[in-house]
């Protein structure tokens, strides 16, 4: 059933050539589609091996939450702006990937993807990364560490007219509460533990990783 839904979505995308779509509409549907338990409290299920073939439970300890709180606080200026928060998110996602990767074996996940990575429990594709980052953002929100953003469902872009280079690419999403600006939070383009790219959704695309705007340091 899930396979049929995914094939149907892919065929629909091919029909229009190049497009942006909202994935499965909600976080709940996204997690259900890939058979991933939703994050709850300090517990997440981490996708790896491409397409969430493997899902490993991970529980964040109180010390982990304290470290994430310190990271988010570090990047807040006196003005306490949404931009400050996004910078903190980029660092927090990088820290989480290192923390989780050292435990479940994804610490050597390579940047981007390659066909050799499919089925490899140490590697993660964009579905894994978008799903995991959504879980991590949900964790931050549940701990009161997101003041200026809410966590939206992952979305995707593709351009099948470009062949393999235009294949569907997923990203996690934050929505700025004041102006409803959508921000892609993408850790797939970097190696495990690197700060995630946080860019305006309309500027985020897979056409060239070299052209993707980098997050401010």
Poorly predicted runs are 1-20
Instruction: Please give the domain count.
Output: 1
> Roughly what is the average pLDDT, rounded to an integer?
84
Termini separation (Å)? Answer: 43 Å
**Number of continuous helical runs:** 5
General shape: globular
What Rg, in angstroms, do the CA atoms define?
16 Å
What is the number of strand segments? 7
Write the layout of secondary structure elements.
Layout: H1 2-16, E1 18-21, H2 27-33, E2 43-48, E3 54-59, H3 62-74, H4 82-104, H5 126-142, E4 149-159, E5 169-176, E6 182-186, E7 197-200
Antiparallel strand pairs: 1-4, 2-3, 4-5, 5-6, 6-7
Which key phrases capture this entry?
two-stranded antiparallel ribbon, five-stranded antiparallel sheet, alpha+beta, 7 strands, 5 helices, single chain, 217 residues
Descriptive report:
With 217 residues, the chain is α+β, with helices and mostly antiparallel strands. It has 5 helices and 7 strands; from the N terminus they run αβαββαααββββ. The protein has helices at residues 2-16, 27-33, 62-74, 82-104, 126-142, and strands at residues 18-21, 43-48, 54-59, 149-159, 169-176, 182-186, 197-200. The strands form 2 sheets. A 5-stranded antiparallel sheet has the order 1-4-5-6-7.
